[in-house]
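// run 5 | inverse folding | seed 20
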């Protein structure tokens, strides 16, 4: 963020797999974690957003064929 790169390790929860309406196999994952925006140089607007920000990510993907 803002040109700052930091290592981050998160744990994702496997939500399941199934076929979409076109018959393509899909898999889903979900994760939620927090970051401190000050670590990335984001120090403004503290009245509207706190220093700790929680990010929630849900994704659906097609597995690569083997």
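// decoded
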């Amino acid at each position: 963020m803002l040109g700052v790169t930091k290592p981050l390790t998160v744990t994702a929860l496997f939500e399941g797999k199934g076929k979409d309406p076109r018959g393509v196999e899909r898999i889903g994952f979900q994760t939620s974690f927090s970051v401190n925006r000050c670590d990335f140089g984001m120090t403004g607007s503290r009245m509207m957003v706190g220093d700790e920000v929680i990010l929630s990510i849900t994704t659906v993907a097609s597995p690569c064929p083997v």
